[in-house]
Amino acid sequence: MNNNYPANLYDYFRANPQDFELRTNMLKKAIWGIITIASIVLIIYPSLIQDGWLVRGLAILIALIGLFNTFVMSSNFYSKKTGGKITGISTAKFANPPRGTEPYGPGDMRIINMYEDEDWDNLTNEKTTHDRPMQLQIEADKEGKVIYLLLCRYFSNADFRGIAPVKIISGADYDKYIARLINLAKN
Q1: Where are the transmembrane segments (predicted)?
Q2: Which of 69, 91, 172, 173 shows the smallest number of beta carbons within 10 Å?
């Protein structure tokens, strides 16, 4: 099988700079930066507020959250064509194939064939559950009415990657399938 598929949808967005751009929300970054700095001050000087040990513990937690949000969560991908923000819908974990099955076995191929044939009606009717190797990543540009899909699989505990090309649903099909894909991911 072809191993040149992206590991996740963010890799796909990064690999196509002609279609997508990563924008940083400077206001969000500044707010989280200020919260992080205030937390670091409280870590260094916990006596500024009573119960210094409790303040220091909470400040450490808030500083870690603040650092994460400042450097990771303050950027989003946007479509250059529509200007719409790409948001994560969810990940659907198909009930079949079960864990421990051979990659590209009959259970895998059934799902892969539906995906590659763009048989969204049958694919969205598949049963889902938690903790399964075959997963469908779903992202959407709600403004441009575009859905981005990537079928991925765990090959081992540390090896998770795409097993088929990214598929795009847009136009009238967006309205037809968005609710079904959201529901598929919730089950």
Answers
A1: 30-48, 54-72
A2: 172
